[in-house]
Write a structure and sequence with these properties.
- The structure is a single chain.
- By secondary structure, this protein is an alpha/beta fold.
- The chain has ten helices and nine strands.
- It has a six-stranded parallel beta sheet, sandwiched between helices. The chain has a three-stranded antiparallel beta sheet with strand order 7-8-9, covered by helices on one side.
- The protein is globular, with a radius of gyration of 19 Å.
- The mean pLDDT is about 95.
Length: about 280
């Protein structure tokens, strides 16, 4: 595995790969790799000639400076894990490399950014869309891999690819979970053992909601009320529980087809998100 840090060095590697007709699989990450990231890298390895992984804690997608400062950074461990999972090329740029002095251009996917994570974290998705667009321009991937845990992000990236004519196939892979149901996230390491056990209630609530829909519940407000009761601990602060259309991400008035069940909570000051897909029988 080769590591590059400059835009010029990355472009040189990509030019050489393209010249030889290689397909490129790309996994953009912010580091602090876990089994979910490794699944993305391993899938890219099986499907492509060259696997590129980026490690970059993107400052412009953080609306809270404290959150940016506390985000885990495990560079040496990340390099070992990425290599073992099958990465060929690791791109670790500095902030200045991607956002030099005078940088003033941003990408925004307007409607899909307004609700849920976009409402809770103003500016977050503008930062995500901007850095992903820049990385797509630099890496020129055949396929790019994202985790389905961040469902709104994956939907937004797909829309950006469609709207801006990026020649890349976006693949969203299933969520990897801990034994108690908690979706793997780099933030989980900030939870105490008790907090991790408690966090499984979010997944349990979404599972209960999916079960109710399978049983024939069609009114989303009734399903959401039951999900809220499932997240019962006073140590959990619910930010949102929602049932939305997978295309528009707008709340549905009646459950008649495919939907996404979305949830966000705070436990011990750590913000956790999760989702499940479901379809009315």
């Amino acid at each position: 595995m080769k590591t590059v840090r400059s835009v010029a060095a990355l472009r040189s590697e990509i030019r050489n790969a393209k010249r030889r007709g290689k397909t490129i699989g790309f996994v953009p990450t912010m580091g602090a790799l876990h089994a979910g990231h490794l699944k993305l890298i391993q899938t890219a390895r099986r499907r492509n000639d060259l696997v590129v992984v980026s490690l970059f804690v993107n400052p412009i997608q953080f609306n809270n400076p404290k959150d940016l400062k506390s985000y885990p950074r495990t560079g040496q461990r990340d390099r070992i894990l990425a290599r073992a999972a099958g990465a060929d090329l690791l791109f670790i740029p500095s902030v200045r490399a991607l956002y030099p002095d005078g940088f003033q251009t941003f990408v925004e996917v307007t409607r899909l950014s307004k609700r849920w994570e976009g409402a809770a974290r103003p500016g977050h998705f503008q930062g995500v869309a901007t850095v992903v667009a820049k990385l797509f321009n630099l890496v020129q991937p055949t396929e790019a891999y994202f985790g389905r845990k961040d469902a709104q992000q994956a939907r937004l990236v797909r829309q950006m690819v469609l709207d801006l004519n990026f020649p890349v196939r976006v693949r969203a892979l299933g969520t990897v979970r801990e034994s108690g149901g908690l979706a793997l996230s780099s933030r989980n390491r900030r939870l105490s053992p008790g907090g991790r056990r408690l966090a499984g209630q979010l997944h349990a609530a979404l599972q209960e909601g999916r079960g109710l829909i399978k049983w024939g519940f069609r009114r989303p407000e009734r399903v959401i009320a039951r999900m809220r009761r499932r997240v019962s601990s006073k140590r959990i602060r619910i930010e949102y529980l929602a049932i939305v259309d997978p295309g528009t991400l707008e709340p549905v008035r009646r459950i008649t087809g495919p939907v996404w069940l979305l949830g966000a909570v705070r436990i011990e000051g750590v913000r956790l998100i999760d989702n499940l897909t479901c379809s009315a029988p």
